[in-house]
């Protein structure tokens, strides 16, 4: 059963005939209340899911193909859970293992970043596959990814998460492997917030540092809280791109319109996208 199905379950209503009584209403589970103690990126996602699972979190455009995909918090979390189960159970990744992500700014890359955080693995963005325990590659970096002596996963990055027509030799096809994974995830070992969690442009961050920096820099980026919606055309291979394209919106209750190949979009079309997507700030 998917996260969406779980949240949609309702019990039957029975009229008892007893006098109605007024019950104290619980305080709403706002993001500010549920994420006050978050220490890792996975904690941030859990808080977002508790606060408002149905709101948009990541809207992805590929302006080379015309693709548009929108993921609610619940749908995104479901992908993260399945990917984390794949990483932990099928690929035998453990806390501290390095996962080289040879991927562009893409909604599936965002999923892998949070899956690594859920397991406690180190997401090494554009990192050396020869030094990695696992490599996750897009279609344009398969040759470089073969330097990894560990598990290799290939993403076709096709619309709607489609699979390769023929899986690349020496790689498992993510789109084939992930659908059968469980919809809920629990790490075998607790994730240490002070352990390395992310490497971007050669800079290592702990999980706690990712959360603290995402919060601290959000206002400067224009992310002021729930309802903020940032359009990002930045690459994921720098902290600035990761912050604008994932961690900042996640930490503040906002959302991101993540655009690949944004340079192919004209000014008039960009203005229309900003209006239609109700974008509040642009980072490009």
Blueprint of the fold:
Elements: H1 3-8, H2 31-34, H3 41-51, E1 56-62, E2 67-72, H4 73-90, E3 98-102, H5 107-119, E4 122-125, E5 134-137, H6 142-145, E6 151-154, E7 172-173, H7 174-177, E8 196-200, E9 203-206, H8 207-221, E10 229-232, H9 239-252, E11 255-260, H10 267-276, E12 281-283
Parallel strand pairs: 1-11, 3-4, 3-5, 4-8, 5-6, 6-7, 10-11, 10-12
Antiparallel strand pairs: 1-2, 8-9
Helix pairs in contact: 3-5, 4-5, 8-9
Task: Characterize the overall form.
Answer: globular
Order of helices and strands: HHHEEHEHEEHEEHEEHEHEHE
Q: Helical stretch count?
A: 10
Low-confidence stretches: 1-30
Q: Determine the N-to-C terminus distance.
A: 38 Å
Largest sheet: 7 strands, mixed
Tell me the radius of gyration: 19 Å
Average pLDDT across residues? Answer: 90
Give the helix level as a range of percent: 25-40%
Across the major sheet, the strand order is 7-6-5-3-4-8-9
Number of DSSP E strands = 12
- Helix/strand/pairing class, anyone? alpha/beta
Question: How much of the sequence is in beta strands?
Answer: 15-25%
Written overview of the protein:
The chain has 284 residues and is of the alpha/beta class. The longest helix is centred in the N-terminal third of the chain and has 18 residues, at 73-90. Helix 5 links the parallel strand 3 (98-102) and strand 4 (122-125). Strands 7-6-5-3-4-8-9 form a 7-stranded mixed β-sheet. It has a 5-stranded mixed β-sheet with strand order 2-1-11-10-12. It contains 10 helices and 12 strands.
């Amino acid at each position: 059963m998917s996260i969406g199905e779980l949240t949609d379950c309702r019990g039957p209503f029975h009229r008892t005939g007893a006098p109605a009584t007024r019950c104290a209403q619980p305080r709403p589970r706002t993001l500010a209340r549920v994420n006050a103690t978050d220490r890792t990126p996975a904690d941030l996602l859990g808080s977002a899911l508790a606060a408002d699972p149905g709101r948009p979190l990541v809207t992805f455009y590929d302006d080379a193909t015309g693709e548009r995909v929108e993921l609610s918090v619940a749908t995104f979390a479901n992908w993260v859970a399945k990917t984390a189960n794949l990483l932990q159970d099928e690929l035998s990744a453990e806390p501290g293992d390095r996962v080289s992500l040879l991927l562009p700014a893409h909604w599936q890359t965002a999923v892998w970043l949070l899956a690594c955080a859920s397991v406690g693995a180190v997401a090494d963005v554009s990192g050396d596959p020869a030094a990695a325990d696992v490599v996750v590659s897009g279609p344009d970096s398969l040759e470089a990814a073969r330097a990894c002596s560990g598990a290799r996963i290939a993403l076709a990055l096709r619309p709607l998460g489609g699979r390769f027509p023929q899986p690349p030799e020496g790689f498992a096809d993510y789109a084939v492997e992930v659908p059968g994974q469980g919809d809920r995830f629990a790490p075998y070992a607790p994730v240490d917030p002070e352990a390395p969690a992310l490497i971007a442009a050669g800079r290592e961050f702990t999980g706690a540092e990712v959360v603290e920096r995402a919060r601290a820099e959000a206002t400067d980026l224009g992310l002021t809280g729930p309802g903020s919606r940032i359009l990002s055309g930045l690459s994921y291979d720098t902290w600035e791109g990761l912050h604008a394209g994932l961690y900042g919106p996640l930490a503040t209750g906002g959302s991101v319109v993540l655009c690949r190949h944004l340079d192919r979009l004209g000014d008039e079309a960009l203005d229309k996208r900003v209006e239609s997507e109700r974008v509040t700030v642009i980072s490009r």
